[in-house]
């Protein structure tokens, strides 16, 4: 199932154990603004910020950082400047009194149905080993026709492509 870039509906993805991760409609709209539809469009990216829901194993991404000064962007690469994005994570944590946190990374690819490159998977696996957050991290790639999500487990050091799930009303 694909998710068309014309929509600004929330997107929900299921993990193999049944847990869900939801990208809110406002986050989806933000991400889709950076889809690389033109040959001159550069990759964009940032971090995912959100929360684990009380009395549930589900996760909501309700904020993302957008490209910032210091980021390096090209048609086929994006390198995030750590300090500015880290500051946004810390601000979200403080403003929410510790309920909103870093959940992973996002970036764009100039392809309809995005797949991670070898550089992407290497970076993601390194983040799973180095980042000091929760046991799982999520990685979003925004394509020109589809948004895809992968989940990585710190314990297993492997990446799993998540399946899109219909949004419940």
Structure description:
This protein is α+β, with helices and mostly antiparallel strands and 169 residues long. Helices cover 21% and strands 34% of the residues. It has three helices and eleven strands; from the N terminus they run ββαββββαβαββββ. It has helices at 25-32, 82-95, 118-130, and strands at 11-14, 20-23, 45-52, 59-64, 72-74, 77-79, 101-108, 136-142, 147-153, 158-161, 163-165. The strands form two sheets. A nine-stranded mixed β-sheet has the order 10-9-8-7-3-4-2-1-11. It has a two-stranded antiparallel ribbon with strand order 5-6. A hairpin with a 2-residue loop joins strand 5 and strand 6. The longest helix is centred in the middle third of the chain and has 14 residues, at 82-95. It is globular and about 45 Å long. It starts with 10 loop residues before the first strand and ends with a strand. Residues 1-6 have low confidence and may be disordered.
Write the layout of secondary structure elements.
Layout: E1 11-14, E2 20-23, H1 25-32, E3 45-52, E4 59-64, E5 72-74, E6 77-79, H2 82-95, E7 101-108, H3 118-130, E8 136-142, E9 147-153, E10 158-161, E11 163-165
Parallel strand pairs: 2-4, 7-8
Antiparallel strand pairs: 1-2, 1-11, 3-4, 3-7, 5-6, 8-9, 9-10
């Amino acid at each position: 199932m694909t998710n068309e870039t014309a929509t600004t509906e929330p997107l929900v993805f299921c993990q193999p154990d049944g847990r869900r991760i939801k990208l809110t409609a406002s986050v989806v709209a933000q991400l889709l603004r950076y889809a690389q539809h033109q040959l001159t469009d550069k990759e964009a990216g940032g971090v995912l910020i959100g929360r684990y829901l009380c009395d549930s194993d589900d996760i909501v991404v309700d904020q993302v950082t957008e490209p910032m000064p210091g980021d390096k962007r090209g048609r086929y690469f994006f390198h995030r400047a750590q300090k500015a994005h880290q500051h946004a994570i810390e601000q979200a944590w403080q403003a929410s009194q510790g309920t909103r946190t870093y959940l992973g990374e996002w970036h764009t690819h100039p392809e309809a149905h995005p797949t991670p490159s070898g550089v992407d998977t290497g970076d993601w696996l390194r983040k799973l080993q180095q980042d000091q957050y929760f046991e799982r991290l999520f990685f979003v790639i925004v394509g020109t026709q589809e948004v895809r999500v992968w989940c990585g487990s710190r314990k297993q050091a492997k990446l799993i492509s998540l399946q899109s799930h219909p949004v419940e009303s």
